[in-house]
Amino acid sequence: MLRRWLGLALLTGLLAGPAGAVECRTVEHAGKRHTVGIVDPARERLDLFLKDDKGAHLHTFAAVEALLAARGKRLVFGMNAGMFHANSEPVGLFVVEGRELTPLTTAAAEGNFFLKPNGVFAVTAAGAVVMESVRWQASGEKARLATQSGPMLVIDGALHPAFRAGSTSRLYRNGIGIGPDKKVFFAISNEPVNFHEFATLFRDALHCRNALFLDGTLSSLHAPELKRSDVKFPLGPILGVTAEKPAP
Question: Which domain covers residue 185, as residue numbers?
């Protein structure tokens, strides 16, 4: 596995210091390049963002950075974290600091979010999980933070049944998965990919048994140490690694 990683890792960086470290790699899979951020939730702080202290939607990484700076913190790494309505409110479950701001939905409708099974990414007392929405609902788990999106990319090691290898629907996509060591894998494609290609990245290259699609087209990454902070479209939920600002 180490040789495989060495062959795939075209760029490796460590974002921030010991408190707030994110390992970033450029991974080539199926002929397409992706940026992958690896976070240990047992050591690093993950937070979800949607609105500022006055209730206005943040929409950008820069706005999150300004919010955190006022609190003596910084955004080490970030990614858009789920789909949202025209009013910028999350489509499904959204939990911040243990408070459920939007309930889980199991409704049927058109669009990627509702391509069942969809799923939930959550951080609980036991660690980070990616789980099908109906399983999450049945589990009774309590989350410090949670965001719902869809479709699931990988379900207990199997690809979502709707994905087709020859699909011509290729977009920039981002998602999140849980690795075999319980680390969280963020991935964003650096060129258009179809769902099958993106899902096999998580299953075959990152060895995630469960992974969740977050969005396409507006997929955005904030990784200052890579000199990257995407500004494409106004974002809804944003998931990030935060840390204390270093002393002057």
Answer: 2-79+149-244
